[in-house]
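Example 9 (inverse folding). The structure is encoded as follows.
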């Protein structure tokens, strides 16, 4: 046998085995194995080449730096060439996390408000500010108009004849409407009906939407925006209620200083941002059944008192008036006990019941007032003659009134409900139409969303408790809407002022208009020097105010004091609050307002505005430090506040 045949005989079994292997399933594994080795080899070659190129680049840059170190250091132009072609967001943007507001990282430039999350944050903050501005402005409405909106009868806001109020006639009881709300009480409640301090749930909403979309698709801006808007709409509501008429120990004869001292005494114990509690003035807020019982019980006493006064009016006028005031004060105080039951009812039920109670109380007060005025005040049926004569008659009428005479007051209570995430009946219990299409997908085994469990709830809490200004560059101060006025706009306002207006008033208005959009709102903020320079308005400060604003600025009373000080060198004794401003200047009527006069609300969300003019529509145009807009602004306001002050000639 030849050698060639022997070789063929040796390889034949191996060839047969190879054929059988290739025909079997093992061939797939064999091919995959060699394919993997080939890919790994190719990648190793490519990676080695990149390392080589990178090392060469580093050596070249290092050599060039060493050669020209002196000149490069002076010019400061050297940069690492390895990073020049990289996109900014490729390395700088953090990775998405469940407890991070991730949409703020998707931005066009370095400004957080230019990011997707920043724009949504700004839109929601502006919406909240607009809603609060609407609520606050409603407090400047007249009690008569508010009563109509609530469906109350006119008798609910009738007091005694007020010679200082326009449109009232001493012989027409139906004209004795109380002209303004004495105190305005703001009360904030959460989803569980518990009274709270904070009035904003913006961070709660954004944190909740961020966690939810992270578990689905955190880049879905449309879905995120829909969830946020629906949550906001369904988590905010408010109601108004008018308390019964009550009387104090006399207010007609008080001058500005006396009113200021009385107001300060009434507000001494009231915490910032909470309800103002006066000795007699805030004892009558309830419109409940208990208040109705108290009114009924005191009716007989009132009738008896009125009879006694008609018989003994010449002997003890002031003594009888004091007793009547005390009775009203006791009646009001007793009505306070039913407050909680009243506020738990719907607005419709509340107004229907209160209208009956207040009608009885107001009608009796009107009868009592009629006899008092007929025998004590000696007011003529009509006032005739010139404006000067009418004003003199008005002063004479006031002098003829008893020292403790009070035409009556009425308070307004605003109940604002803001649902938070931590409430038992909170945001996560709200049924959302914007996520219904995902419910079927969320039921599948592979879904990441398992509802609001311990994991997702903890993530929301961590996110909303973060310092958003420090972590994301977002704060209330970031959402300032007002822009400075142009010279053309300022000139247009100045041309509308009366020609005979004093130069001091013109200077004040011009300065105030020139300040629009330039001084952020900051609660408790006061100026250190005259003018803009030196006060550092707009600078970021470490300690934010109670609303989270962190830019140096002024509050409403601080703006007024600063504007008078800077424009006409009147410091107003550096008044630091609306209560102190009450004691400045001369007391005037609403109809006597001139540009530069002040309109002040010292209670509730206390505020003060500087009057500019009446518009063609009969609305008031004023300049003020606007807390809801975050800056000084010019707005049409109702501002039917209790105090009107004229300081300049």
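The amino acid assigned to each position is listed next.
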């Amino acid at each position: 046998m030849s050698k060639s045949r022997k070789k063929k005989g040796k390889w034949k079994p191996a060839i047969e085995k190879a054929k059988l292997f290739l025909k079997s399933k093992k061939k797939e594994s064999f091919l995959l194995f060699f394919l993997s080795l080939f890919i790994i080899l190719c990648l190793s070659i490519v990676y080695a080449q990149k390392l080589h190129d990178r090392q060469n680049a580093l050596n070249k840059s290092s050599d060039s730096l060493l050669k020209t170190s002196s000149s490069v250091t002076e010019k400061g132009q050297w940069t690492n060439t390895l990073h020049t072609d990289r996109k900014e967001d490729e390395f700088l943007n953090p990775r998405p996390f469940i407890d991070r507001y991730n949409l703020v990282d998707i931005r066009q430039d370095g400004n957080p408000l230019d990011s997707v999350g920043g724009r949504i944050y700004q839109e929601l903050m502006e919406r909240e500010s607009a809603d609060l501005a609407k609520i606050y402005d409603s407090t400047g409405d007249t009690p008569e108009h508010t009563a109509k909106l609530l469906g109350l009868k006119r008798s609910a806001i009738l007091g005694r004849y007020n010679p200082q109020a326009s449109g009232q006639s001493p012989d027409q009881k139906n004209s004795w409407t109380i002209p303004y709300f004495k105190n305005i009480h703001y009360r904030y409640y959460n989803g569980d009906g518990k009274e709270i301090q904070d009035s904003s749930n913006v961070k709660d909403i954004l944190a909740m939407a961020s966690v939810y979309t992270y578990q689905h698709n955190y880049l879905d801006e449309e879905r995120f925006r829909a969830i946020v808007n629906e949550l906001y709409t369904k988590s905010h509501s408010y109601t108004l209620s008018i308390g019964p008429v009550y009387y104090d120990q006399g207010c007609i004869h008080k001058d500005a200083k006396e009113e200021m001292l009385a107001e300060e005494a009434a507000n001494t114990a009231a915490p910032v941002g909470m309800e103002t509690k006066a000795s007699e003035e805030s004892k009558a807020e309830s419109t409940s059944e208990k208040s109705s019982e108290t009114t009924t019980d005191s009716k007989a006493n009132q009738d008896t008192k009125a009879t006694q006064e008609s018989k003994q009016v010449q002997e003890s006028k002031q003594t009888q008036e004091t007793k009547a005031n005390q009775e009203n004060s006791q009646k009001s105080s007793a009505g306070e006990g039913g407050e909680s039951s009243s506020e738990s009812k719907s607005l419709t039920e509340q107004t229907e019941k209160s209208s009956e109670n207040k009608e009885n109380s107001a009608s009796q007060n009107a009868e009592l007032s009629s006899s008092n005025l007929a025998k004590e005040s000696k007011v003529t049926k009509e006032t005739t003659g010139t404006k000067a004569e009418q004003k003199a008659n008005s002063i004479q009428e006031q002098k003829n009134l008893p020292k403790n005479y009070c035409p009556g007051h009425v308070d307004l209570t605003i109940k604002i409900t803001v649902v938070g995430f931590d409430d038992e009946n909170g945001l996560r219990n709200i049924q959302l139409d914007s996520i219904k299409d995902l419910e079927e997908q969320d039921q599948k085994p592979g879904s990441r969303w398992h509802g609001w469990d311990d994991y997702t709830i903890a993530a929301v809490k961590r996110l909303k408790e973060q310092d958003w200004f420090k972590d994301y560059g977002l704060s209330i101060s970031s959402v300032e809407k007002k822009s400075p006025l142009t010279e053309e706009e300022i000139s247009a306002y100045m041309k509308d002022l009366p020609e005979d207006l004093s130069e001091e008033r013109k200077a004040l208005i011009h300065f105030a208009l020139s300040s629009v959009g330039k001084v952020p709102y900051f609660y408790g903020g006061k100026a250190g020097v005259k003018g803009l320079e030196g006060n550092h308005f707009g600078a970021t400060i470490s300690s934010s105010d109670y609303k989270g604003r962190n830019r140096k600025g002024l509050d409403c009373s601080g703006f007024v004091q600063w504007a008078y000080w800077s424009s006409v060198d009147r410091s107003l004794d550096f008044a630091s609050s609306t209560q102190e401003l009450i004691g400045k200047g001369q007391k005037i009527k609403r109809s006597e307002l001139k540009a530069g006069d002040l309109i002040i609300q010292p209670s509730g969300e206390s505020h003060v505005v500087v009057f500019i003019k009446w518009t063609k529509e009969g609305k008031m145009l004023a300049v003020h430090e606007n807390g809801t807009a975050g800056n000084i602004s010019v707005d049409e306001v109702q501002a039917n506040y209790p105090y009107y002050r004229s300081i300049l000639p």
